[in-house]
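Give me structure tokens for this 417-residue protein.
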Amino acid sequence: MTTTMHKIALILFVLALLHTFATRLFEGLAHRHPRHAGLFHLLGEVEVVFGFWAFVLMLALAFVDGSAAAIDYAESRHYTEPLFVFVVMVVAASRPVLEAARALVRLLARLLPLRTEVAQTWLGLALVPLVGSLITEPAAMTIAALMLAPSVFRPGMPEWLKYGALGVLFVNVSIGGTLTSYAAPPVLMVAGAWGWDSIHMLTHFGWRAAIAVLANASVVTYLLRPHLRPFDISIEGEAPVRMPILVTLTHLGVLTAIVLLAHHPVLFTGIFLLFLGITQAYPRYQDPLILKEGLLVGFFLAGLVVLGGMQQWWLQPIVAKLEPTALFFGALGLTAITDNAALTYLGSLIAGLSERAQYMLVAGAVAGGGLTVIANAPNPAGVALLRRGFNDESIGAVGLLLGALAPTCAAAVLFLL
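Here you go.
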């Protein structure tokens, strides 16, 4: 039954979507009206958008149905994913983890018959997203973004190439997590309900995703190659501190434990608090933790959870009525305007969905995961970490959409074979 509040929630959801496309407009207003620059800068932050409109929704719900109903609704939502993304972002971006990842990439780069920076860029766009099937997509996004930022996402790189690389990164992370049944949020939402294990994912999705990831990374790396800088340029002139192996193993152990406990927020939050204590105990082996960026991303995703929770009344009937092939393209398109995990979750509630329809729903959802900031849970993390390398320190929604179109088509072709 559709209520007045459902209609209000849909209007606010549409306004939030339009807001994501208008963040650059707010940045322009901040420069033209310095007196209110703080407010416009806040509204120009992509990570703030859905949290802001979720707050408006809660006020509207309190006004229409009462404060008790608003509180009950907010407390009925599940915030494990936003909390997990925040925690795994901070840990994955810690200096010992990043140095271990860079060391592995440098070692593999020496084995490739390419210039070092070209090989490292290709590995950052291909290998790291595929490793996301083991360490989860948010961790892969964080590591790849921080590795690629000094070489690819920097001032001086042609803007169209940066958007092309960003589109490839987002699409590759979205499909690269499908080699297992636990790493990609849209897969996780249906794996238990439909009995999909990692063998099923590898044989039905994984090999197709791997081919698309390698192809996407190869094309964009070829285009980037004349403009690439060595990865370590950002730390030139610094006196490196030798990282003790025990510190590195401790951080990797914390990251592993958090990944394994991804569905148990009380436990992985406790481990994260212990991790914060460790970083304070050994500050000489740490860079500043990305707590602000992580919190903003968590705020964004929590806002999406609150706003998206009241969209089931119109989304689920659309999904239920589509034939398998139409369902693929419908899921691909709907993913661009709603989180792909929310979309597949709604699909898991539909009784009698055929195996082919199940495949098409998930394939479309993961293929479209790079089209917008909200399409896949790790995307806000990538935006938060990479936006400073773009003009006006802002990533345009249209630029991201255009940059992701080609790699999305490549993924779609592979999944439809």
